[in-house]
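Weekly modeling sync, notes
Attendees: S.R. (lead), two postdocs, one rotation student

Agenda item 3: backlog of single-chain predictions. S.R. asked that every request posted to the team notebook include the full sequence so nobody has to chase files. The rotation student volunteered to paste the first one in as an example of the format we agreed on. Action items at the bottom.

Example entry:
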Amino acid sequence: MSSVWFGADRAPTDYLGDSADGCKQRGRTTHTVALDQLSQGVAELATLAAADFDPHDVLHRLCEVAAQALEVDGAGVMRADGGTTTYVHASSGGVKDLEMLQEVLQEGPCRDALDSGRMIIAGTIQDMAWPAFQRMATTVDLHAVLAVPLLSRGRAWGTLDLYWNSPHHITDDDIAAAQLLANVAVSFLVMSSDRAQLQAAHNDLRHRALHDQLTGLANRELMHQHIDHALAAARRNDTLIAVLFVDLDDFKSINDTFGHRAGDHVLATAAQRLQSCIREMDIAGRLAGDEFLILCENITPLATAIHSMQTLAHRIHQSLDQPLEVQGVELRLRASIGASLTNGSTTVEALIHHADTAMYRAKTAGPGGTAIRLLDH
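Predicted structure, as returned to the notebook:
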């Protein structure tokens, strides 16, 4: 990686040798980082591989390891967020002040390192090319800085910023040690990003597998899982649960008259209206076609349970009855609703079956009806 030097009257190659012999030939003072400290620092970063880490964990650990393992007086880490830099962690108050200043101004060595993809080096206060940063560095008594961009896959993930509290000739050893830690850290940043993307893809696939693609509601499989858990909770807590089976009346004629695309719009609208009628803890799902289920948990007391379900059914009827325009025609939806309540001493299949049976009983009485069955009593 190339470097940008500030305040140098010679090219960077005059400062940086390709070998230890080259350094000796130039009479340079070698600033050696103890190998055992550096090895320990790399090992500490490597422990992240066995942990459930995120990018913030990696950057936080990088800062701490750099401050301990490298011959520096302070370390800070910034994260790249789109086109901005954001403060993550610092080893001291003075370093934090400088890092926070760069976040506010979006100017300084870390900003330049991110923009250029190159190390930014300033060995003295006078070498610092950023006026506000220079003034703050003087105030907090930090006189030299090395900003190392964390690069991988064609992008900058952040910067490792090293500070000294006196003018410092930044050597090959300083740069090599900092680059080693940066390389290890960025490998974990990439790993964390890949893992997050895989997890997001997995979550998306799972969501698709358990939700109806048209309405976004829980599908049959997920509703069965929720009802099974609710039955167990009802038995433990001596409460009631209810399942409402909602079937849109005369939906086939809407499909036949306006087409399936319009029918899908009606189903999606009906799903939204059902969702708006239930409590946050309740769950709405779509079984198939124009059939929906609603699961209500923790219904107490028994004396008012049936009335509570009647009230909910009435609210659903009112919501569905709101005007809905389809291809310039105003429609009003009707639904037949059947509900079954239990204290948990039944099965998922039986509870849904009883709600379905109650729904058909309501449908025989005419559109927009409700029938409720209380089981186990």
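Discussion: group reviewed the output briefly. The domain at 33-197 is CATH 3.30.450.40 (Beta-Lactamase).
Action items: rotation student to repeat for the remaining queue; S.R. to check formatting next week.
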